[in-house]
Task: inverse folding
């Protein structure tokens, strides 16, 4: 191990919440919430009493206080609560996705579920913006309205060429469940569809969703899910500028089979990509051999320093050990170097979505976030890999509270953020935590 790598691992092992910092001046639409609007013409639901701009709070301890969470906490910048279930017109917020724009604005996307925790029903994709690194949040806006149907699986990405924010989502009829779709009991027009939207003004407004299903979903696929979590913009190599969205789908049982298609072995992984800023889309690799060993589900991706793409996927009940699978692509996601295989150094992670983020620098580590109890969704933690995703080491457990989905985002040269589901119950809040990487003075870190 080189001295630089040794120092890097030491620094990462001391990941700690950032101390208080003064919030930046609010953007015009945050200072005047009446100016905030959505591209699809549907205003955000009126906030309930107690809902505010989501100011930051000091670092959390492991145990809940028993107090009902509020979106407005004591001043500070260690953490904040952009989403609190039961506030803002939604019963539950789930499925975090977060990016930082070229202007430094943090965009926190989520599913706003009106009627409860169910994955099916009246669900919108919602957004809150922060212009001070996640300390405070502007008003909630609806980016993709379900209008009684389901819209979700946000996968946002910033186009490195133009700075536009491109958002890919999925949707289906609000009365159709995942099981019904996988069994082929839902008409195609009411089943899973794929949409793309774009913002050219730093996430203030988004274009109306455009249906791209015919370009990126094969006729034999039933279920379809993008991400969830941030998508990937390739920044080096022959595919620089490509927007790459990891995804999963389900297939149809072979003729004569007694299977319904709901069996976990019919899950498979794939990717979709655009080389023109999200205007046209193509299918990349497709993992659809349905062998019941590696049942690929929700997936995150990162570009490694050598230009390859690393894919980290949830294993959905296959015979492979553990709950994490991974794969590599040397051609920008068009094909995989090898089929997905089990990742044994993440065996502490339960069956759940996770996030990966490659830090900048030729010897910088790859980070992974996810719960750290194999049999339960709790104890959100950060892992690091110094060998391009072959092995991971746990660096820090953020809390012992219930926790589920997460998304990692770079905030600066020495800071990363994580937006994750947590609370006294896993889906009580979406918490945003700032984590500093004390490269220069790790001995001073708490």
Result:
């Amino acid at each position: 191990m080189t001295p630089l790598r040794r120092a890097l691992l030491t620094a990462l092992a001391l990941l700690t919440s950032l101390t208080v910092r003064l919030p930046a001046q609010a953007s015009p639409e945050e200072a005047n919430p009446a100016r905030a609007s959505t591209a699809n013409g549907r205003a955000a639901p009126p906030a309930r009493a107690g809902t505010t701009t989501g100011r930051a709070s000091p670092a959390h301890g492991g145990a809940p206080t028993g107090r009902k969470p509020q979106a407005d906490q004591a001043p500070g910048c260690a953490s904040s609560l952009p989403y609190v279930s039961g506030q803002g017109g939604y019963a539950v917020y789930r499925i975090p996705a977060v990016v930082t724009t070229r202007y430094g604005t943090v965009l926190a996307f989520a599913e706003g579920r009106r009627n409860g925790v169910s994955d099916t029903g009246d669900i919108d994709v919602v957004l809150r913006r922060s212009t001070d690194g996640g300390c405070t949040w502007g008003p909630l806006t609806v980016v993709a309205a379900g209008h009684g149907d389901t819209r979700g699986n946000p996968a946002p990405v910033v186009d490195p060429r133009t700075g536009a924010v491109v958002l890919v989502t999925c949707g289906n009829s609000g009365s159709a469940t995942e099981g019904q779709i996988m069994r082929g009991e839902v008409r195609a027009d009411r089943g899973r569809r794929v949409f793309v939207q774009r913002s050219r003004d730093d996430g203030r407004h988004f274009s109306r969703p455009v249906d791209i299903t015919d370009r990126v979903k094969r006729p034999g696929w039933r279920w379809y899910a993008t991400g969830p979590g941030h998508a990937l913009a390739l920044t080096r190599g022959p595919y620089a500028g490509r927007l790459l969205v990891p995804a999963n789908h389900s297939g149809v049982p072979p003729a004569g089979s007694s299977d319904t298609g709901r069996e976990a072995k019919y899950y498979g992984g794939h990717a979709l990509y655009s080389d023109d800023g999200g205007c046209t889309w193509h299918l990349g690799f497709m993992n659809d051999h349905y062998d019941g060993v590696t049942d690929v589900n929700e997936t995150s991706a990162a570009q490694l320093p050598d230009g390859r793409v690393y894919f980290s996927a949830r294993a959905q009940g296959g015979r492979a050990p553990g709950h994490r699978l991974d794969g590599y692509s040397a051609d920008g996601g068009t094909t995989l170097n090898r089929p997905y295989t089990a990742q044994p150094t993440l065996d502490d992670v339960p069956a759940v979505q996770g996030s990966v983020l490659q830090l900048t620098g030729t010897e910088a580590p790859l980070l992974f976030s996810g719960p750290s109890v194999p049999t339960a969704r709790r104890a959100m933690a950060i892992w690091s890999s110094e060998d391009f995703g072959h092995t991971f080491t746990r660096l820090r457990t953020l809390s012992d509270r219930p926790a589920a989905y997460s998304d990692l985002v770079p905030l600066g040269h020495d800071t990363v953020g994580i937006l994750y589901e947590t609370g006294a119950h896993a889906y009580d809040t979406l918490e945003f935590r700032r984590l500093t990487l004390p490269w220069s003075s790790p001995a001073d870190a708490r």
